[in-house]
């Protein structure tokens, strides 16, 4: 009898279009947008490797050609990476099934599966151990949230076995648990092979409910350490800052945790102030007297003198004019926001846009 490997191989789902994160995903797939100085995917790969995973298959689709030139075969991270591209969108279940031929596992072996837009402190080894010790067909990472209305609920019994999958609740009576699907799973390989091939399949809406109805054992493991869905610009900026501040764990942060992270070849004026986990990307420039808090400034961007930037994301090669105020704003790659503008509350400036000096002013009573 063969002994199962101590840590299974993994599938990373990185095919999404990142629509909610636009304009940052116009030129870059969401997992490749830098968080704490490196593509977000780097943090996921590094955490998987730290948990003992060695073989990972990336399920790609949108801008698929970007991934392999950057990560190659994965050897620089101590991994063996393979890439499979969907020609047509296949959904989460279809994407998992589409990469099955690249897996090395036997039918009864576990396979880790991660969504490519979740920043989490999940104990990966504990999820695998739970899967093996309970004899489950599928195990799910569950986390508890204060307001679960935006998520699908996953109630469990006293042993942690999943009892139902409930769509987003609309009323207080429908909120029967605060446990939600946190986007990391362990599947037995045989379950992956049973997913229909060559069509779109949702694991959340089709695979999991179907398995439950057929009497399969689906196990939940609640791990409420750090968890954040990076699907929106506000969440992405927060996640990057939390990585820099050390609130979210990652062995891939290129520097010591602290109030700021300034990448090599960036220039920051001596009297500029960077706080709250701010990241200044390579070749970016921050002018005299600028104040940047909890924000990400990507490669080659310029923040001119006296600008005030908070909780914002500034794209590659963008320029923020002198004395301009950004609060909770997103500025796309190559955009120009002239001096003396004020952008707040989720305003998004598209890639390559040109906003003249003083053209936009915002106050809360407008």
From TrEMBL:
InterPro entries: GMPPB_C, Mannose-1P_guanyltransferase, NTP_transferase_dom, Nucleotide-diphossugar_trans
A Pfam family: GMPPB_C
Signal peptide: none
Domain Nucleotidyl transferase, residue spans: 10-242
Family of this protein: Belongs to the transferase hexapeptide repeat family.
PANTHER family in the record: SUGAR-1-PHOSPHATE GUANYL TRANSFERASE (PTHR22572)
Protein name (Swiss-Prot/TrEMBL): NDP-sugar synthase
Organism: Streptomyces lonegramiae
Lineage: Bacteria, Bacillati, Actinomycetota, Actinomycetes, Kitasatosporales
């Amino acid at each position: 009898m063969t002994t199962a490997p101590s840590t299974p191989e993994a599938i990373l789902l990185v095919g999404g279009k990142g629509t909610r994160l636009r304009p940052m995903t116009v030129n870059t797939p969401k997992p490749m947008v830098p968080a704490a100085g490196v593509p977000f995917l780097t943090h996921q790969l590094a955490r998987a490797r730290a948990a003992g995973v060695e073989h990972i298959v990336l399920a790609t689709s949108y801008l698929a050609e970007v991934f392999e030139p950057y990560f190659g075969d994965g050897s620089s991270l101590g991994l063996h990476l393979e890439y499979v591209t969907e020609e047509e969108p296949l959904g989460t279940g279809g994407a998992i099934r589409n990469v099955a031929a690249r897996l090395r596992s036997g039918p009864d072996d576990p396979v880790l599966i991660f969504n490519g837009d979740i920043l989490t402190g999940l104990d990966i080894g504990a999820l695998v151990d739970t899967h093996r010790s309970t004899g489950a067909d599928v195990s799910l990472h569950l986390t508890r949230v204060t307001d679960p209305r935006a998520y699908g609920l996953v109630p469990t019994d006293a042993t942690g076995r999943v009892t139902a999958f409930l769509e987003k609740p609309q009323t207080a009576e429908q909120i029967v648990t605060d446990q939600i699907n946190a986007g990391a799973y362990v599947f037995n390989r045989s379950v992956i092979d049973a997913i229909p091939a060559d069509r779109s399949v949702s694991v959340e809406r089709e695979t999991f409910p179907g398995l439950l109805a057929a009497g399969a054992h689906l196990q939940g493991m609640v791990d409420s350490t750090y968890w954040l869905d990076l699907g929106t610009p506000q969440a992405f900026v927060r996640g990057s800052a939390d990585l820099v501040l050390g609130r979210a764990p990652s062995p891939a942060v290129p520097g010591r945790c602290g109030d700021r992270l300034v990448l090599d070849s960036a220039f920051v004026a001596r009297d500029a102030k960077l706080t709250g986990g701010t990241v200044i990307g390579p070749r970016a420039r921050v002018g005299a007297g600028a104040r940047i808090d909890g924000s990400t400034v990507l490669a080659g961007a310029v923040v001119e003198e006296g600008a005030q930037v908070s909780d914002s994301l500034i794209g590659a090669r963008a320029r923020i004019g002198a004395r301009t105020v950004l609060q909770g704003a997103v500025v796309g790659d190559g955009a120009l926001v002239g001096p003396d503008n004020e952008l707040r509350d989720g305003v998004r400036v598209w890639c390559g846009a040109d906003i003249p000096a003083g053209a936009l002013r915002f106050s809360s009573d407008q």
